[in-house]
Hints:
InterPro entries: AhpC/TSA, Thioredoxin-like_sf. It comes from Paracoccus angustae. By secondary structure, this protein is an alpha/beta fold. It has a domain at 15-161: Glutaredoxin, CATH 3.40.30. It has seven helices and seven strands. A five-stranded mixed sheet has the order 5-4-3-6-7. A two-stranded antiparallel sheet has the order 1-2. Strand 3 (34-40), helix 2 (46-64) and strand 4 form a beta-alpha-beta unit. The longest helix is centred in the first third of the chain and has 19 residues, at 46-64. Residues 205-214 have low confidence and may be disordered.
Amino acid sequence: MRPDVVPGARFPDYVLPDHTKARRRLSDLQGDQLMIVVLTRGFFCPKDRQHMLELVRFHPQFVVGYTQLVTITTDDWHTTNNYRQQTSAPWPFLYDEERAVQKDLDIKEYTDTSHDVMIPHTIVLGRGLEVFRVYNGYYYWGRPSMAELHADLRDLGQRTYRDWDITRPDLRGKWQAGDKSDFYPYGDDAISMDRLMLQMAGAVDRYAGDAGKV
């Protein structure tokens, strides 16, 4: 992983086609929520499939926890769809046959002489694609457990949401006074409840800009 992808840095805002061939921008997929980006070897790897199955089981908790999930693979479009369907993953899978992400992040798995793949990584992101934690999954146990992701997202949530502890007297007083500025999604950065429900459903806006760059 290139040395500037560290906690506090901004993860690159890649634009790649998804499993429907629509080009998607990571920041659009994220919206105002937290995010997990999974960089995977691809469908052929049993370790990757097993970890994906764990994420599938955990996914309903991502939804209610206001957290988006996206997988990036070097598989082709057809294999990407097989990967997504056969793991029952409901989130977007982006495919990168040109290895743009692999090259940009310097994560080519040079020990694999049969496949030109990425070293698997799991990236935990705060709002604005801010890197919180990077897990190197070259070995299976380097990947985060769901308990570790839960702990990471708890820490991120505490840093992100000003109303994390609404039992605080000052917050109660603000709410009773009609000041909702510190309350998500009602405050200064308020989004409509309709928009929030769309985000929770994964129905985020598709990137419609110039598709020429990553």
